[in-house]
Amino acid sequence: MTSLSSPVSEQVATRLAPYIGAFNAQMWIKSVARRDLGIAPEELTGTHVARLLEGLRPFLQTLMGRGTADDLLLQIGREVH
Amino acid sequence: MRVRRLALFPFLFAAAFAAVLAWIDGGEDDGFVAGQRILVRILAAAGCWAAASAFESGDRLRRAWLWLGIGTLFILARDLLRLSPVFAPSPEPQAAHILTTLGILANLAELVGIWRLARAWSLLTIDRPGGRAGLAAVFLVTSALALGVAGPGALHAVRAHDLILVTSALVDIVTLCLIAPLLLTALALRGGTFFWPWALITASRLSWLLYDAVAGLAPGGALQLPDLFRGLAENFLFVAGLAQFLVVRHVRSRARATGNP
User: Fold this and answer.
1) Does position B1 have pLDDT exceeding 60, yes or no?
2) Which of residues 15-44 of A touch B (CB under 8 A)?
3) What is the ipTM of this complex?
């Protein structure tokens, strides 16, 4: 498993882990960072947060429904910089 | 949030059922067994509706839970009809046809529900624990178990040229095979609260596997094993639905609370 040393990826993973588990949180962030942003999770910065959260949206919407996923992503967006 | 405590309920219920059955001397009281069967169907349906209510119209998992709830209502209707003298103990061919049709409809609705849940697996699990080898092993083992348990019934139905029973047996095999994606989703979500609905619904499907195994082998002794496993399966579905409702509500309430300082 890749270590997530970036504060941004760690912050997002920390907020998702209570719901989807630490393993899945890191895998989802790694996947979205590489697929949508073309970078490794360690390279994520505050400027990538909006696109990272947008990439996570389909996963979370499948798991917890659109309304709840949107609320959670809004919360993470407010807290992570 | 103590969702994990819900997992105890099916076992406590099963223990209470077995204890009462022993107390009334080997299940000679058919009313108690039938009442227990109807109670667990009602609980399972309630769990499915609770889970569906956690989602909004159009959400993928809402439809899955609704199909599971509809399937449970079909089978509940069949069990209620069986309480009538017209439908039991030896129903006329037309009454028997109604019961069988309800059973098939229940199986099909359940198949759609489980299929929709299982399809979410491909969206939710990016990197599977255990890698490709682990994935293949889980699929092989569950498919072999499904074929081993439900296969003889399907073969018997084919030989008897009974299309309805063949359909039922095939649906059984497919839904049992779908244990694998449910289990893998639960494993991928381990450590998070969303692990629980998936783990509990996997436990429900495994209980149906055990039900099929004992229903096909045992003639129905004093312990009433098929009823015990049916109760476990329905109660795991009940608590899975409750867990789904609770974890979604928990995320929503926390997210909204954080947004309103």
Assistant:
1) yes
2) 16-25, 27-28, 31
3) 0.89
